[in-house]
């Protein structure tokens, strides 16, 4: 699945938010509807979009009803860096087919996005330089 990292100023900020909202080893995102492909999603990942680019993923632990007529997407509270891939913005979440998932970057590899300001990153992307 893909989701916009709404309110995140940078990948670093998203990483910090995930860690800050972690409770009992997970982060819970509220959604109105349970995905139709829920059985396929458990064990997969939620890919985060920031400035029209997939920048990382958080492993999905599962889905549960929260008792208020909505559902929680249960995530591991970490952001795994992936090879930056352009992706249009959208509302809510969308499915991402496995053939279209960007590969993970290893623990020492980086593409420098954490160090760039969002404005600079956006301008470089418009020019096709990142």
Automatic annotation (TrEMBL):
Pfam families registered for this protein in UniProt: DUF1489
Biological classification of the source: Bacteria, Pseudomonadati, Pseudomonadota, Alphaproteobacteria, Sphingomonadales
Protein name: DUF1489 family protein
Native source organism of the sequence: Sphingorhabdus rigui
Family annotation (InterPro entries): UCP032025
